[in-house]
Design goal:
This protein starts with 5 loop residues before the first strand and ends with a helix. It has 133 residues and is an alpha/beta fold. The radius of gyration is 14 Å and the shape is globular. It has helices at residues 14-27, 39-48, 67-74, 94-102, 115-127, 129-132, and strands at residues 6-10, 32-36, 55-58, 85-89, 107-110. It has a single domain, classed as Response regulator (Rossmann fold, 3-Layer(aba) Sandwich), CATH 3.40.50.2300. This is Response regulator. The modification 4-aspartylphosphate is found at residue 59. It comes from Niastella soli. Residues 6-126 form the Response regulatory domain.
């Protein structure tokens, strides 16, 4: 069992929230997840959080504030800038990958098409983060 880790998923697709949560439970029930539906809401959650997440997963295309703008915002905040941000998107555009890495994302993950692939990725991340990041 892992030391409790907190992950934050910022994605406007509620089905993706459920899939991600199910994958986390399969990997380790001690993992906790908080969610937001866009970058604006995520900033509100983070501004009042008593415990900061270990990882933030961010979709690129969301209403109100997308992933790129969210990434720019948190990398300017002293209390948030060191949290690893992982872009979690359907995009595999090399331009998106380069831009988000330049802005401080530690990883760019194209959303897996299979549940088992998501579970494998999350397993590797939370158990062997130094090898994944």
């Amino acid at each position: 069992m892992l030391q409790n880790q907190l992950l934050f998923l910022v994605d406007d697709d509620l089905d993706d929230h459920e899939i991600f949560k199910s994958a986390l439970v399969k990997v380790d029930e001690a993992l906790e997840l908080i969610t937001a539906i866009n970058g604006y809401e995520a900033l509100k959650v983070l501004s009042t959080a008593t415990i900061l997440p270990d990882y933030i997963f961010v979709d690129l295309n969301m209403p109100r504030m997308g992933g790129v703008q969210f990434l720019k915002e948190i990398k300017q905040m002293d209390n948030l800038k060191n949290i690893p941000v992982i872009i979690y998107s359907t995009s595999s555009n090399p331009g998106d990958i380069a831009k988000t890495k330049e802005l401080g994302a530690v990883l760019f993950v194209t959303k897996p098409s299979r549940f088992s692939e998501l579970c494998s990725f999350l397993q590797s991340l939370v158990h062997n983060n130094e090898q994944v990041l």
